[in-house]
């Protein structure tokens, strides 16, 4: 069911949500969080589709905030709110509210979003593109327990990485880090099988890939060895090579969803290492809402998280580093590694 409201208010939008739920035969609210998506009209369709697919695992109220660019001098000052309310078949297991803000209201989106948040439920804010330099300091980001950005969408991803590092606040995370989950799991499992000390790390990726830089920083911090990023043809991260005393330990993904894991003195073996869609990355991030210490360590190149002991940033030897590197990421409802 879909309802359109023109020149409306947040109170009218709430009434429309209640009416739509009752009309569709689902008056109960069974959602576990509110996701706020801040996006331009150009990218709104893809972002809403990804959020709706992620809500299959985490039923949520998705509030999409679109700041419309004014076309006339009057539009630059006259505040107006248009909204779409989608429930049932039009919104999957949750419900979707699309807010289009005009005029001065564009600078006060939090005043419209706040009345639409689910009571006593976590709030997640996601910026698919054009994230603020300090997400926690943003008026919408201040409402959230979890703030999701994506360095890959920036015009200069590596410069964006340094901005994220300089402005990190517990609760921040980035999809460039989430894209590394399968790589981190594969490397941790490989190091469990090869107990020789690691002497050096090389990460190969397409030029300017922020995930590769994060992975190199994380491995340097956890294994306490030198590491570097080398350019490859891509796409994304294509290989990680660890230099050990018996020989090279490598995970190589040239193309397709399969990678080759090679341990010293053993034949290569295949493992699944696909490039995942945004909806899967979002669903993974929504499994936990606490601070991501490993992301902070990767951002800052090995510095201990605020309030953590020195051992939190250390990872001595291959096995010890691998064990620390794959600390379980948990949520109130399940214990799953990120």
UniProtKB/TrEMBL annotation:
The Glucose-6-phosphate dehydrogenase assembly protein OpcA C-terminal domain covers which part of the protein?
170-299
The Glucose-6-phosphate dehydrogenase assembly protein OpcA N-terminal domain extends over: 51-165
Q: Name the Pfam families on file.
A: OpcA_G6PD_assem (PF10128), OpcA_G6PD_C (PF20171)
Q: Which residues cross the membrane?
A: none
Task: Give me the ranges of the annotated region Disordered.
Answer: 304-338
PANTHER family to which the protein is assigned, alphabetical: OXPP CYCLE PROTEIN OPCA-RELATED
Q: Which NCBIfam families match?
A: OpcA
Protein name, as recorded: Glucose-6-phosphate dehydrogenase assembly protein OpcA
| Organism expressing this protein natively | Streptomyces chilikensis
């Amino acid at each position: 069911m879909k309802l359109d409201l023109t020149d409306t208010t947040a109170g009218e939008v709430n009434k429309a949500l209640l009416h739509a739920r009752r009309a569709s035969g689902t008056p109960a609210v069974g959602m576990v969080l509110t996701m706020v998506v801040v996006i331009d009209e150009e990218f709104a369709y893809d972002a809403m589709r990804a959020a709706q697919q992620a809500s299959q695992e985490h039923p949520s109220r998705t509030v999409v905030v679109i700041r419309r660019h004014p076309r006339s001098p009057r539009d630059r000052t006259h505040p107006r709110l248009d909204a779409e309310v989608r429930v049932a078949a039009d919104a999957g297991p949750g419900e979707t509210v699309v807010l289009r803000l005009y005029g001065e209201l564009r600078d006060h989106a939090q005043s419209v979003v706040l009345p639409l948040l689910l009571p006593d439920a976590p709030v997640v804010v996601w910026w698919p593109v054009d994230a603020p330099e300090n997400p926690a300091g943003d008026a919408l980001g201040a409402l959230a327990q979890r703030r999701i950005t994506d360095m890959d969408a920036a015009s200069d991803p590596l410069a964006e990485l340094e901005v994220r590092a300089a402005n990190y606040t517990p609760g921040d995370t980035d999809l460039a880090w989430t894209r590394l989950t399968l790589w981190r799991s594969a490397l941790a499992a490989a190091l469990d099988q090869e107990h020789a000390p690691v002497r050096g790390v090389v990460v190969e990726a397409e030029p300017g890939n922020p995930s590769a830089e994060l992975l190199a920083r994380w491995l340097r911090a956890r294994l306490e060895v030198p590491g570097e990023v080398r350019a490859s043809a891509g796409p994304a991260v294509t290989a990680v090579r660890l230099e050990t005393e018996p020989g090279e330990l490598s995970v190589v993904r040239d193309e397709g969803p399969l990678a080759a894991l090679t341990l010293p003195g053993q034949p290569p073996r295949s493992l699944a290492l696909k490039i995942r869609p945004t909806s899967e990355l979002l669903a993974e991030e929504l499994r936990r809402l606490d601070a991501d210490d490993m992301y902070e360590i990767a951002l800052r190149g090995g510095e201990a998280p605020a309030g953590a002991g020195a051992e939190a940033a250390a990872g001595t030897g291959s096995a010890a580093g691998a064990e620390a590197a794959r600390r379980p990421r948990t949520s109130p409802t399940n214990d799953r590694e990120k």
